[in-house]
Amino acid sequence: MTASLNLMEIREAAIRAQYPQALALMEGFDHAPRIAKARPASTGTAPAERSPGIPTATGRLFRATTPGLTARSSAAQDGVHLIARISQADPGEALMSPAQASVLQALRRALATAMAVGELYEERTALGQLKRDNREGRLDPARRTEFAELLAAASLIGLHVTANMLSFLLAAQASEGQAEVGELEEILTDNPALALQGALWELDGILSRMDGSLKLVPTLTAWCERLMEAVAMRAGTAPRLEAFTSAAYRVEADDFQVNGFTPATHKRSTTLTMAFKKPTEVVGNHIAKYQSMKLAKMLMAYDFDKRLNPFAELGGFIFTFMGDGKPGTGKTTLIQMMAGLLNDYCANAGYPFRYANLSTESIDSYQGKSAQNAKAFIREIIDPAVIGFGTIDDIDQLAGKRGDRQSSSGQLEITAVLMESFAGANTVVRGNCTFGMFSNFPENVDDALRQRAGARFLVDGPQSKEDYIDLLSLLLGKRHQIPLGEHDLFAAQEIKKAVAASYDAHSRPQEEALKKVFDSVQGKIGALDTVARLGAYLKAIQEADERFTGRAIKNITDAIKVRAMDFELPDEWMEKPELFLTKDYATKLAMISELARPITVEMVIQEINRYADSEFRYADKSDEAAIDNAVRDMGRMEEAKKRYLEQRT
């Protein structure tokens, strides 16, 4: 790619210098658990004989009486021998398999890299000097807190880099197998060495319960994911991490990058197999088509050096959107069009492009696995080193509705992950990716999840007579001699004209329930031409539908900002990267700012009506569906009661 990343190279010599220390950890060490419960002794071990009068072990721990050691556990230490553990993963084989050997190589490489990154962190902070002072007994008591915080930060860094790189290196061996490792407990932050010992001790226990060598890679991958999640959660509140998170590191030999606590994604094939559609092949759906085309160009404004998009800073970037419409109205065609545009733009600019769809295969019967699949999908798309486009087609089948007895636990897990990822406390919108949710039945999507869609695309398909003529001509192709007749082919699809007409149609609401609210408010306070009157209209909508909350207002204002950016980046900027794409961030920001439009009252009214129309439409359908189900249930009960009484007589 042409955009250079500001990466610090981790020298190969620095990594290999850590190989002996990493190998020593893998060969064996003793660890007394601090947080997790000690593992039970092997069941095959016979109890030792005792002399008469000596009581048997009660299982109670011995508590040291030495001052300063009374709070430390005296549980028996368990020897950890990972090389032996992994080598003997398949008891039926006398020799180590190539897969086992590659796992050991990857583990040593990951541990050594983590240690090398730890040394770089020491150099960029005061940790190195404080460690020397502590060894020599010269540590200033006033700096003990700083020393402890730096050690904890280095511990978190070492754990995350180890799990991150091991997962990255094992991705090539990943299979369809799945494993569940449960929650990790032995996450220590006293110092980096003890932190690695605690994590590897817990990994050894997990591997000891593993059933067969076929589960080796899935088990290790699941452990890596759990460890990264736990460490990233702690890192969110830990101090002294800026020296690590503000830099990016790269291991050239493995094509591996360290970007803070963001998991790396193994490089996959960049060839996207999809039947792309051109914008001219999308008939109708004018607003959805126009916004999809704009969004594709917005994504291309992402700056890989700054790791930020000017549109995300100025306001007007669409991070999540929902497209809803009847079956056959063109949702899949819109996906194919947008993915095709991004694929072509990225190929021209030399940017990596990644597309993924969260499918029903992600729903798993194992507890927690559906959530893991959803998180993997999110991580793959939000990777700041790529331009990403993620879709969740038929989201009403994937994400369960809370309180609905028909929703499986796997569906509810996916709902929770999507809600947290799209608008959670740790959500960071860089502007390098977007997520599209599509459904024929949006009323079946959980209300809170649906409201996390920042933009709404009504996919209503062809509407006018001209649309149907254009669609018929397009699908017939050229292998016929039927005359066109009196029709200006594709004139109705002229995007600017069609979009202007579509926006104007929302100057008044479309849904009957919302029309009553709109007319009532205007009848009481007059034209909606001030912020106060617009706010009164929003309050009236909320009184009519309690689901119209503060998040709805935020989504509306975001859509208004998108309208303020209602300009199309010139095609020439996409075709010739030097005109825009390869310029520095400040220049991109200035170029985009010059094109912005002022916000008008008409924009605000239209966006309020567009959003509220969609919510009323969803609510009406949801309520009607619930009423129909209740009527059906009552009818069945009535018939059952009738038959029961007939049988008694």
Overall geometry: globular
Report strand order across the widest sheet.
7-8-9-6-10
Secondary structure: number of strands:
10
Major sheet details: 5 strands, parallel
Please report the number of helical segments: 24
Percentage of residues in strands: 5-15%
Distance linking N and C termini: 83 Å
Structural class: alpha/beta
Contiguous low-pLDDT stretches (5 residues minimum) are 1-5, 42-77
Helix content: 40-55%
The radius of gyration over CA amounts to 30 Å
**Average pLDDT score:** 83
Task: Give an account of the 3D structure.
The chain is of the alpha/beta class and 649 residues long. Helices cover 51% and strands 7% of the residues. A 5-stranded parallel β-sheet has the order 7-8-9-6-10, with helices on both faces. Strands 1-4-5 form a 3-stranded mixed β-sheet. Strands 2-3 form a two-stranded antiparallel sheet. Helix 13 (369-382) links the parallel strand 7 and strand 8. Mean pLDDT is 83; it is low at 1-5 and 42-77.
Summarize the entry for a quick read.
InterPro entries: ATPase_AAA_core (IPR003959), P-loop_NTPase (IPR027417). The protein has 649 residues and is of the alpha/beta class.
Question: Any key phrases for this structure?
Answer:
649 residues, 5-stranded parallel β-sheet, 3-stranded mixed β-sheet, 51% helix, globular, disordered N terminus, nucleotide-binding, P-loop_NTPase
